[in-house]
Amino acid sequence: MSDTDLFAAATDDTHAQMMQATYEALRKHGYSELTIQRIGDEFPKSKSLIYQHYDSKDELLVAFLEYLLEQFEADLPIGDDFENAKEHLEMLIEYALPNEFGDDHLDFARAVEALRGQAPHDEAYQEQFAATDAFYRRLTADVIRVGIEQGVFRDVDPEQTAAFIVASVHGARNQRVTADTAAPVRAARRELEQYIRTRLVADDQ
Amino acid sequence: MSDTDLFAAATDDTHAQMMQATYEALRKHGYSELTIQRIGDEFPKSKSLIYQHYDSKDELLVAFLEYLLEQFEADLPIGDDFENAKEHLEMLIEYALPNEFGDDHLDFARAVEALRGQAPHDEAYQEQFAATDAFYRRLTADVIRVGIEQGVFRDVDPEQTAAFIVASVHGARNQRVTADTAAPVRAARRELEQYIRTRLVADDQ
């Protein structure tokens, strides 16, 4: 996901501009140094507009998380464009866990995981992340179900398989930005591809 | 890991007492509300002792992460007690990702993942988490290597397999406490067990 995709609406939409300002401030300062003042510094309109919409930094950040989830859903490769469920699954994984993270994607992932670190002690954050995780899991399970119908995948449990794939993608992605390490993440992804080939893809494919 | 294991030395050791105080404060207040004052409130000796040892909250928290890693290493099921590498691997997974998280373990995992959320913007944290991840990965790869020698496991790539197992365990654990959800985590673990059975364990075992 590039910045351009994320804030495509930001040129003329106040809400999208506020979200982009939050993103830029989070990227520059990290969560613990983030203030509404610093978000305001990135916002092209009057700072008072931010205070009109949000009572606190936390309220603004929960709205920001909601926005990210909406963009994530809108941007994910979904739909009937995929003739083959295996290719669709590979696209879903590549989207969340690319073999090479570009700078934009890395900045985005850092911002998301920094917010995620607040979730253990904040229910509003927890709900947002639970919704994101559930959405990505549901989509993955749907693709697996289609693949079973197509005869591309074996008759596995779609929910259980999706839960495992999403957990491993999430874990590798989180490690990528919290331990700033690339090689083990690439190794994990290579093994994820082996897992899909040996456990999920039907023998005659 | 129970609190008792973590702070076994805390009854008479100032450093361990400081670490326990940090843990209790982090558990009660979360990262973003954590202050040296609040850590001092949990410390049985004079607060000035904390300031004598650490110039800032961040310095104290990096020392706390180091302490956690030491305890994690000391507490992990390592060594020659395991005749069977498959059982040893299962123990390693159960240790980090139990089927049922007890309250203590959940509190501990919440505290760790809250600190982890700071790592994208803090190199000292990143280094600590990179070291923890690398240690757990190395240990897992060693167990896989022993299993291959024993004929219990197939001739897989130990590092690649370990990277994948550790990423999926980490992802499920992180989801457990940041989305406060148990069912998908149990599903992911069940599928991890299937993966180990079908891809790792040798056919004649």
TrEMBL record, chains A, B:
Has UniProt tagged this entry with the keyword Methyltransferase?
no
Presence of keyword Transcription = yes
Residues within the DNA-binding region(s): 35-54
Organism superkingdom: Archaea
- GO terms, molecular function: DNA binding
Stretches assigned to the HTH tetR-type domain: 12-72
Under the heading Pfam families, the entry gives: TetR_C_6, TetR_N
- List UniProt keywords, sorted A-Z: DNA-binding, Repressor, Transcription, Transcription regulation
- PANTHER family documented for this protein: HTH-TYPE TRANSCRIPTIONAL REGULATOR YJDC (PTHR47506:SF1), TRANSCRIPTIONAL REGULATORY PROTEIN (PTHR47506)
What is the protein's name according to its record?
Answer: TetR family transcriptional regulator
Organism listed in the record: Halopiger aswanensis
Q: What is the lineage of its organism?
A: Archaea, Methanobacteriati, Methanobacteriota, Stenosarchaea group, Halobacteria
